[in-house]
Give the backbone structure.
Amino acid sequence: MKNKLTFIKTWEASGNGVFEPDMIVAKAYKSVFASYRPKHFLYYQKDNKNKLGEAYDAQDEMAKFNESGYKDFSNKDYVKKYFRGISSAISHNRQTTRVIERENLEVTSKLKLSQFFKASVESMKINFGHYLACQPQRFTRLEQMIQEQISGSVPRDKIGEVFRILSTPTETTPLADEQIDWLELSLKVKREKLLFSSKEFEQIISKHHKKYAILGAADGKDAWTKDHFVIIARTDKRSIQAIQSEIRKVSTRGIKLKKQQEDLIKRYKITRGDRYFCNMLAKIGHQRLLMRIDGWMPLYEAMKKVIRAVAIRYDYDSELIRFCTVDELVNISRGKLISKDLLMKRKDCFLLIYKHPNTQVLHGKEADNKFRELVPVEDFENINNVRGTIAMKGKISGKVLLFQWGDDMSEKVKKIKDGEKIILVTGQTRPQLMPLIAKCSSIVTDEGGITSHSAIVSRELGIPCIVGTRIATRVFKDGDIIEVDANLGVVKKLR
């Protein structure tokens, strides 16, 4: 590893073992669908309160990776191949998931378990190879180019807003589908005064759970349980009129957005070429959600079952075995075992170092020392404001609710009082955060861009949002009063 490389934090996650960052990034970087492939990556995790891990990429490589985004996505042939690749990856993930789900893993042969695991890893690499290729930050230069091009016909103070509206997907996502279905379910419960102990309530909750449980899965956690939905139903105090109003608002969102886009295109005479790029960005934002929700989330749930079956077969703890690398897990599934003592040491602290084409895992003091050598400690004590990318315009002041992966979301939701203006400050938003996001008046993230989950969701909900601040979660604390000026892209501490 060259010491001259400067590493920057790019994302965080909780509850991961060595396996997850190795599979999600280190393996995928080798096959990422881009003209430039990053060659260095770090993932550091200690057994802290939240089991929070931090991912780092080399800054100069990220600059090249992002520059390649402009080159790749400006090429229409690349774009066609890319979208075909996404469809193929999702289809491949679904097929692999179905094959695993049909199998009784308790009696499956060791050979077949090994084959299942290898097949799922290969399928996942295809998905993540495309997912990493459309990281929001890869579109910075392309977004600037589009905004420069429309500046000839759009007033200067409207350019950002027009661009954001035109690049917002109008298609419904599984998140919107779940929201509508839940509202309809809640309306039925209220109208018919269903008892929570009734057979009919049990049936409709079970149906909803079966369809949408996967939205809760991530960071080593399992999908939502049926009790998760029962608790939400029991604590829903909204009136019938309020639910009906919300249904009208949500169900007409796409129609209103499409009309808004048509009006802007006509008013400002947006060219066909600029519309093409805006539509492409909107499609990428939509496809990113589908790659996550329809692609790798269900497959990862199936993979965890295979890993647990391998653990049982070879007498490993099902959580401890996740501190193996992908290659080590392949070897274990073939009967070539690895020291449990080594895995325990990694569980306490590990540093995964990817240096193309190899992966190295350090533990204990060696991991700590190497991490500090590669990533100097930053001081955020005297910083009171941050800047980022505007995802949804607006200006609001409120109380910070800091969410870090590994926090108990239901406990965070309970802390929100009726009528409070809460600003969610987090590394990034993911589908399983929707119950919390719905209670907040604004979103601020460290990560993301115009195609990120945070950006799409904030525009759907109509709440101010600033993404890509890089350091918001380290500057602001729970309970701070801050101002989010999503007209200027600035967040500042008031007290």
Notes: The chain has a mean pLDDT of 92. Residues 438 and 461 are 8 Å apart (CA to CA).
